[in-house]
Amino acid sequence: FGRPDSPYFSYTVYKPPFVENRNNTIAKSCILMLVRNIELEGALQTIRRLEDRFNKDHKYDWVFLNDEPFTLEFITATSAMCSSSKIKYGMIPRELWSVVPDHIDMEEANRRMESMEAQGVLYGGSLSYRHMCRFQSMSFYKHPAVLEYRYYMRTEPDVDYFCDFNEYDPFKLMELKRKKYGFVISMYEYEDTIPTLWESVEEFIEETALKEGTDEFAVGDGFQFLTDDQLIDRGNANNMRSAQKVVDTLNGDYNLCHFWSNFEVGDMDGFYRTSRYNSLMDYLNLEKPGFYYERWGDAPVHTIAAMLFLNKTEIIHFDTLGYFHAPFGTCPLSENTRLQQKCLCDPQNEYNIDIEPHSCLMKWWKNGDGKRFLV
Ligand code: GDP
Ligand code: MN
């Protein structure tokens, strides 16, 4: 750790005056970007926007991760653009990125990638995209550079934040309200990328319950969000339910709703680092081939896990934060909000997914308080 040829090479830039950011939240929080050196320009654009709209008032640490060593050019330019005193650059070891489990037959994976590419599936033929999605699903929170933080905000190159956050600090809010997952955009996933994800989760539930020698399985109260079929189980949300009952409940088809993960805020200790989350990830990675034979995205993986392991009251929709990641965005509907937060967006614009049929937001709000479907 610390040497450029070490798999855990990590480099930290400290800018004076060094003030460790502890005044906003009790727990430590960071802004995290997985990025390639060639994306420098887009990374700078994102940093500039997020600093102007939010972080210049808070100075949360930035963490950049890459599967290759960052260039000096990248480190110099990005660290200059960040307002925080501490900016970390972590290299992702191969074990967390490109080492695939033994049960994956790479020839088979290649055949499937070729055929998905031929069918026109987005990133259907890309192996690196699959490594990325798997890393964002089950590894980012394990990286040594990220371990010191409890909360994280994910960002990406070339995204935009339409509005000032003002006093709205997602980290602080999540800590105060004990939220574990926050999102801004929700929509339907491409079915071709996850044909067997849902059934794999069902099998996990059945098998976990069996392995633990109990037929009981704790489940969050949000499952109605994930299926358009009427759920049968109306049990108390906080109760343990029998695994069979959960699976019967799930037997509705997955409606493909997911939270867009390119902007998300998470309580890593309270969600990603829990043994339940990681046992699901181990199952999906070690027992099922879908990260490579299909093209499971981290967004549906995060979402299904959140609905499985969290209660709906632990999930928050940030409805006043304007955001854009091509080709979709979200813009606060309230004119008052837009004026007060100096938004540069128009909710009538076609990029505003919230008012489009392929948004899942209405479905989220319909079942929003987690009580309404417990008739
Ligand atoms: P999309 O948003 O699904 O279209 O995918 P992106 O190309 O934006 O990738 C998602 C995130 O992962 C972005 O932050 C990218 O910079 C990052 N990313 C994707 N592929 C790689 C890769 O091979 N190496 C690294 N270091 N980052 C990657
Ligand atoms: Mn992206």
UniProtKB/TrEMBL annotation:
Topology term for the membrane: Single-pass type II membrane protein
Signal peptide: none
Molecular function terms from GO: alpha-1,2-mannosyltransferase activity
Biological-process GO terms, alphabetical: cell wall mannoprotein biosynthetic process; protein N-linked glycosylation; protein O-linked glycosylation
Intracellular or extracellular location(s): Membrane
Cellular component annotations (GO), alphabetically ordered: Golgi apparatus; membrane
Keyword Metal-binding in record: no
Record keywords: Glycosyltransferase, Signal-anchor, Transferase, Transmembrane
Entry's family note: Belongs to the glycosyltransferase 15 family.
Record's protein name: Putative mannosyltransferase YUR1
Covered range of the whole protein: 155 to 529 of 529
